[in-house]
Amino acid sequence: MISDASQPPQGGSGDYPDTLQTILDSLDALVYVSDLETYELLYLNAYGRQLWGEPQGRKCWQVLQAGQAGPCSFCTNDRLVDDQGHPTGVYVWEFQNTDNQRWYQCRDLALRWTDGRLVRLEVAIDITDRKETEEQLRRAVALAEARANTDELTGLNNRRAFFALGEQATQQALRNGHPLSLIMFDLDHFKQINDSYGHAIGDRVLQNVATKVDSMARDADVLGRIGGEEFAILMYNTDTDESSHLAERLRQAIAASTIEAAGQTLGCTASFGIAAAHGRPISLEHLLSEADHAMYRAKSRGRNRVETAGRPSS
């Protein structure tokens, strides 16, 4: 319809037949035309003039956008014509306007203007409400996924997430030939804490231990609460000596840490088991089994100690 007008509109004024001008100005959407080569803004409907003012011979990027020193880096003009300069049809895209920060779905089209030059026709519909709803949904899904993978009490990975992440790390270590270590530890006599002080105090003990683990482990380590009072740390590209060093530091930190409960100072200890894989094919399940056996050896030898699978006890 625009390309059939007898004269191009000047500055958004009413050079179109009154009926067409009325239709364009009644749309709840931006309609504009700009020169495809010079970017001169040739037409702006009432919706656009209300938001951005009269074109007054300016470029489209000077009127419709903010902070642009030249043609916009996101301009789609090059998508509207082929290598021979022929129009390629409608291009649909979404973007956030740099001036008013509103989101728009744009339908762009190259066509011949009444004087023969190629112009860009864009019809842009405000979709900000839809984008905000989509973002709220995305955050809700992300939160739900995080909660599904997070132990609610301690904030660490839950058993499900630990096994999923741990399996990925195990397979990557096998492919790359990197060492992999697993630390498992269990709080000593934790049932007595629950029986004597109640589960609320027991929960505080678990939270305190989880905080220690989270602060001392590396960002790349996979942490998890995999049982009631049982925790695990999978350490990628880490040998037995390095994991033993962390386990001993954790053992000391847990033994030295206390909470106040029922007017008393309450503490606990933990028993540690370590297993490592380097140069041998091993599954995460097998690694956990080896660490579990080492941990129970630590308990049988007096608790509050670190034992390593495949090594004699010290």
Describe this structure as you would to a colleague:
By secondary structure, this protein is of the alpha+beta class. 39% of the residues lie in helices and 23% in strands. It has nine helices and twelve strands. A hairpin with a 4-residue loop joins strand 7 and strand 8. Helix 6 crosses helix 7 (199-216) and helix 7 (199-216) packs across helix 8 (240-256). The chain is elongated. It is an enzyme of class 2 (transferase).
| DSSP helical segment count | 9
CATH level 3 topology of the largest domain: Alpha-Beta Plaits
Report the principal-axis shape.
elongated
Structural class based on helices, strands and sheet pairing? alpha+beta
Instruction: Characterize the main sheet.
Output: 5 strands, antiparallel
Number of domains: 2
Report the β-strand fraction as a percent range. 15-25%
Parts with pLDDT < 50 across at least 5 consecutive residues: 1-14
How many DSSP-defined strands?
A: 12
CATH-scheme architecture of the largest domain? 2-Layer Sandwich
Distance from N terminus to C terminus (CA atoms, Å) equals 89 Å
Rg over C-alpha atoms, rounded to the nearest angstrom: 33 Å
**CATH homologous superfamily classification of the largest domain:** Reverse transcriptase/Diguanylate cyclase domain
At the first level of CATH, the class of the largest domain is: Alpha Beta
Order of helices and strands: HEEHHEEEHHEHHEEHEEEHE
Can you list the strand order of the major beta sheet?
A: 2-1-5-4-3
Mean pLDDT: 90
State the helicity in percent bands: 25-40%
